Amino acid sequence: MSHLTRASALAGFAEFACSQQLDPEALLNHVGLLSDVQDNPNNLISYDKFVHLLEHAAKVANNPLFGLQYGLFQGVDIFGTLRYLIRNARSVEQALHDLSHYFHMHNNSTEVLLQHRDGQTVLSYVSSIASHRGQLQIDELAMGVGQQLMQGLLGSHWQPQALLIKHAPLAPSNQYRQLLGISPQFNAPDNAWVFSDSLLAMPVPNADHALHEFMRQRLAQLSNRSEGGFAGQVQRLLRSFLPDGRVTLDYIAEVMHLSPRTLQRHLANEGTSFQKLLDQTRQHMVRHYLSEPDMSVCQLSELLGYADQSAFARAFQRWYGMSLTQWARQQEAGSAD
Predict the structure, then answer these.
(1) Do 184 and 243 fall into the same domain?
(2) Range of the domain at 251
(3) Which of 135, 219, 307, 328 sits between 20 and 30 A of 71, alpha carbons compared?
(4) Tens digits of per-residue pLDDT, 226-263?
(5) Where are the beta strands (DSSP E) in 106-221?
(6) CB atoms within 10 A of CB 308
(7) Domain co-membership, 236 together with 217
(8) What is the DSSP-derived secondary structure letter of residue 84?
(9) Is this structure's pTM higher than 0.85?
(10) Most distant pair of Cα atoms in the chain: their distance
């Protein structure tokens, strides 16, 4: 299975990286992510690249607590659209159940679990990947996000009983306490916040219950397929993976947990096909990238997932009825006017 997360996982990355005296664009490029990846928070990106990004940033910044601090900086913005459901729940318990139930729509390789043990609630973050380079930064980011989530839901009522972290400390424990207000228990069996069950009944302040119900119905409809039907989901995946060249029917079907034949059947029912969507997505993307003055034809061809420049040139001729050279001359003439 391909491990994916929403681009909202990068919420505030540029601002936070700059606060650490880092170049966010250079960091993104280093791991193979485009600098405009945050423009559409609902797009899917490689979870592996996200993990590698945090690991690389922590190393460049010489800051072992980069992930934790970034999580505290992000808060619930990391959840994208899902945050509107959480913030408008009737109670803390409903908010956390909603997060647990729909978290797979944000990230398909991790889970948020809500468990009860002897009068205590354990809110844990569990990765389905047995071992992953850079996972320590991700685990601590999740704990930072969890702190901001609970603070937002409970305000001054948020009094955690324990913070569990599976790995050994990455920095002196007093630095964790300064950031979180609590000293974590390291080398624990889980990554989790532990608090009293009594907090679950607390109402969420300033919640809009009508908006919550609207978002719940919307997410329920999208849980098994994305907005715009199968065609919409395929186009989002194509935009995410075209720069890596992974644009085959077989690959996209695997990501969607369907057989290629089943995916083609669903697309046919919606009046389209994989090849049509691929062509439309490339045509849409080329209009965006042609506005970048420093981008070469070779770079543009690679970003659109073409094996060679000649294939891209033929497609461009078909779309616009002219060659790239003719198009460039036309643009220059228009600018001169």
Answers:
(1) no
(2) 229-336
(3) 219
(4) 445 678 778 878 877 776 666 889 888 877 767 888 88
(5) 110-117, 120-127, 162-164, 192-196
(6) 10
(7) no
(8) H
(9) no
(10) 76
